[in-house]
Amino acid sequence: MQKKPFGLGDIVEMKKPHPCGTNAWKVIRMGADIRIKCTGCEHSVLLPRSRFEKRMKRILVSANEPE
Question: Which InterPro entries match (predicted)?
Answer without folding.
Answer: DUF951
